[in-house]
Amino acid sequence: MTTCSFDYDVAIVGYGPTGVSAANFLGAYGIRCVVLERDREIYPRARAVTVNDWTLRCYQSVGLADELLKVMDPMTEMRWRTYAGKDLMRMKVPDPEMGLPVASMIYQPAMEQVLRAGVERFSSVVEVRFGQEVTSLQSIGGGSVVSFRDLDTGVQGCVTARYVLACDGGSSNVRTRLGIPLEGSTTDTKWVVIDVRVKRWWPERHLLTFWSDTKRPVVDIPLALGNHRWEFPLAEHESEKDFSTHDQLWNLLATMGVTPENIEIHQHAFYKHHVRRAQRWRCGSVFLLGDAAHLMPPWAGSGMQSGIRDAFNLCWKIREVLGGRLQESILDSYEVERAPNVAFVTAESERLGRIIKRQMTASEKLDALHRLLCKALHMQEPPQPLAGLPALDGGWISAPPQKTNLIGQMPPQPRVADVRGRQGHLDDFLGTGFVLLGDGVNPKQFLSRSQQADWAALNSRHIVLREVSQGATSEEDLFDLEGTLLSWMRARNTKCVALRPDRFVAAADGALDVPVLRQIDARSTHVKYREPSVA
Q1: Which of 534, 531, 535 lies closest to 143, judged by CA?
Q2: pTM for the predicted model, two decimal places
Q3: Would you give the distance in Å from CA 446 to the centre of its chain?
Q4: DSSP SS3 for 365
């Protein structure tokens, strides 16, 4: 790691799910960080409800997936149902492709506790300061001065950092001080969210249920660790005061068929749904992540997860820049790569929201609602939850993604074995850097002399992926126990892929050069970055 005159390599503002994830990623890379957080305690209300395999794969890279799964419950099925008990649609969770549960239900405070404990492993490089409010940002010599105030003592302080990650939520203080507009809209409908603790099981309590009703469609969510949630839309004539007491909340919960024998009300809150995006996600050495950069409705379960993926995408790139292995221009690919995925899951969330709130006026229209569900989710038959292997539309890749190549794709994660017979998931054997995988042959055979030098400069590993019927010829050989990864490569007639640290394919047969930034996302190509001003 290169040394510099900054106090820290990275300052993280905010210690919610995005900030604590960034601290774990950067800490695992040995990067000097300071975290500035206003609140001392974890936010008590569970906001996010689910985590999928892609997000868990990010955490797997820093040794946290197994610990997180201990405080999660597997999601097995979703359903749309009428108050009369008629199922409009059921969707089973598909089999995993990444070696991790496709969907898991969480209780967010417990998940964040695991993530904070994870950061404690890196106390030699990550310093967390609670009770600190950022008061100004100023550019200085390719980095930033971050000034802050202790909320208990009023004492002022400041640190310098090469990069600043604004992970401070939808009302981001950092974004406001940088003068970056938050574009988009907020829906008129207000929802009341009721969080409860389970006392006695009721039929099919474990199923995520969307209740379809002409007056009040409801989302019914089984959270982990014996917690549960209902989300009710308020009618136009209703306000928060109509549901301010537990007695008033019980009037809503009674329609769900639960009583005080089944549950204990824990807390409730009111909110509206936002669809907003910051005009730009970078301002000099300052980056916006998570809700500070984008807000979406909750229906696709991707708001918190998008922030975690933002952090993973950006942190490995910062590592490579600080290590002198990649030019700083790689950081321009952050928004280029993340914005299309955020736009996709936001659109899916809006689509699901329209279905949830769809008003049906008669029971004979149930078949019509079923057809609407299928059409809106792009399926002729009952669709699966949002799942499958993610892909890049553009960014730091060696050639444009096409149906005929694997560039920009993320490989499945099968179980593999090393030459000593030890078995595990693929990523556990790859490390956290760049890896070139060859189908039965050493990847070096596909590289020119200059390409070999370029990949060597990135400290890339070269691994031969073999069938179980073959023998080992190198300590770096891995054996695809079920042939899953080899089949994935052979389906595109690909003999060699270069995987980035986040496991997207950066290069493949015919385009094995070290990538350059390919700004394919139209909106991101016109982003103009500027240095932050004194605020």
Answers
A1: 531
A2: 0.92
A3: 34
A4: helix
